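#onboarding

Welcome to the new folks! Below is a worked example of what a typical request in this channel looks like: someone posts a single protein sequence, and someone else replies with the predicted structure as tokens. Don't worry about understanding the tokens yet, we'll cover that in week two.

Example request:
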Amino acid sequence: MAQVQELGAATELKFDQYVGDPYREQLYRYDNCATGIASIDEFSDEHVAFYRETGFLVIQGVFTEQEVESALAGFTDLVIGKHPEFVGVQFEAASKKYVRTLSQKEQLDCVRKLQHFVQFEPRMHAMAWHPNLQRVVSRLLEAEPELFADQALSKPPGIGREKPWHQDHAFFNLPMGTPIVGTWTALDAATLENGC
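Example response:
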């Protein structure tokens, strides 16, 4: 993994601004895990119907292991400043007082979110416009997809806060009834044990 550049005093850092009450314990259930379909090749009209009924669909194997590793390298390059024009890095608020004192690897572990990066990082662009992903989204939308927002949400070890249940439409200034499909790709293991 590439090393994070030292954060100098002149570097303007952005931090997560959310401060709220703890979420009720009963809000989240861990007694069931959606498994979905094992391969993009299995995607069918039946899965489109399931998505329309439930609002979600899990598809394994949309990307190869090499494509995921490449995206992780792209994520790292965005954070460490290999694309100087990119300014969409947000750090976890809990790291605000000490992030500048951390080693390069520890600084990388304080990132909460990247946003608006597809235009700067070719490997992330390749993921967003991957033919497998486009095929699924096109069928779910019944239209040619447009990229409206691109984000990489991270859960920094030990300090990362949860991403509470929410409805994406509340964050987007789009007319009601606008078809929206949000896609989520885990770049590392998403397990109950690590909070995913």
